[in-house]
Amino acid sequence: MRVRDGAELLGLGALWGGSFLFMRLGAAEAGPIALAALRVGGASLLLLPLLVLRGQTGDLRRHWRRIFVVGVFNSALPFVCYSYAALSITAGLSSIFNATSPLFGAIIAWWWLKDSLTPLRIAGLAIGFGGVLWLAWSNVDGTAGFKPGGSGWAAVACLAATACYGLAASYTKRYLTGVPPLALAAGSQLAALLCLAWPAALFWPQTAPSRTAWLAIAMLAFASTGIAYLMYFRLIANIGPANAIAVTFLVPPFAVLWGALFLAEAVTPTMIVGCGVILLGTALATGVLRLPRSAEG
C-alpha cells in the first residue's frame, strides 16, 4: 500500500466516522426520515453528473431493477435506522454497532451464497456478537430503553441497519458482479431517494432546521456519503477489496473522537472494551486477522 493510499484510507475512516456526528447534529431537527432523504438526495446530486461524464448511464439502465434493491437495503433503510438511533445514543456507540456489518455479511454470505465458515471465522462471529450483546446490555436504560425513543430501540435500529448492509453485500455479489462501482453508487443513491421522497414529505419538519443542522446535513450528504463513496471505490481499485475493508476498523475511533470533541460525548471503559471485542471478532470472521495454519488446524 502506498503512502497516498494509506492517507486516503484514513481520510475515508474520518469521513465515515463523521457521518455519525452529522446525524447526531441533524436528526433531532430534521427527523430521521427527512434526514435520510436529504442525505441520499445530496449524494445523488454529486454522483449522477459524474456517472454521465464517465459515460456509464447505460450500465444503470441495464441493471436498474437490481440496483434499486441495493438502494433500498444499502442506503434507504439503514440510513433511516441510524438517523433514528442518533436521537437517543451517542455517535460513538452507533459507530461501534456499525462495526458489526461484516459479521452479518459473513453469516448471510454463508447462508445464501454458501461461503465457507472455518472454525476460526465461527469463533470470530461468536466473539463479535458476544461483544455486541454485552455492549447493548450495558447501554440500555432498563425497561425505559424499550419505550418509544429509548436507547434499546436505538440499538435494535443499528443492528437492523447492519443486517441490511450484509444482505445488500451478498445481493450485490450474486447479481451485480462486474457492474461499474460508480453506476452502483449513483444508482443506489437515486433509488434510495425515490423510496424516501414521499415518506420524507409526510414527515417533513414543521420548524425549519437551524443553520447548524443544515450544515451537518450538507456534510453528511456530500462529504460522508458522496465523496466517501468515490474514495472507497478508488481504494478498491488501487489496493483491492480485502485491504479497503480495513476502513471498518477506523470508523469507530474517528466517530468516538468527533463525538467527544464536538458534542462532549463521554467515552466509557465499557465502550472501549466492547469496541475492541467487536473489532477482534470482525477481524477473525472476515479473515483480516489470521492465525498460523498450524494454529488454525
Question: What would you note in describing this structure?
Answer:
With about 300 residues, the protein is mostly helical. The protein has one domain (about 5-295). It is built from 14 helices and no strands. It has helices at about 5-30, 30-55, 55-60, 65-85, 90-100, 100-110, 120-140, 150-175, 180-200, 210-240, 240-245, 250-265, 270-285, 295. It is globular.
Secondary structure: elements and pairs:
Elements: H1 3-30, H2 32-53, H3 57-62, H4 64-85, H5 91-98, H6 101-112, H7 119-139, H8 151-175, H9 181-202, H10 211-239, H11 241-244, H12 251-263, H13 269-286, H14 293-296
Helix pairs in contact: 1-2, 1-5, 1-10, 1-12, 2-4, 2-9, 2-10, 4-8, 4-9, 5-12, 5-13, 6-8, 7-13
* Total domain count: 1
Helix content: over 70%
Number of helical elements: 14
Taken in chain order, the helices and strands follow as HHHHHHHHHHHHHH
Question: Notable features of this structure?
Answer:
single chain; 297 residues; mainly alpha; 14 helices
Quick structural overview:
By secondary structure, the protein is mainly α. It has 14 helices and no strands.
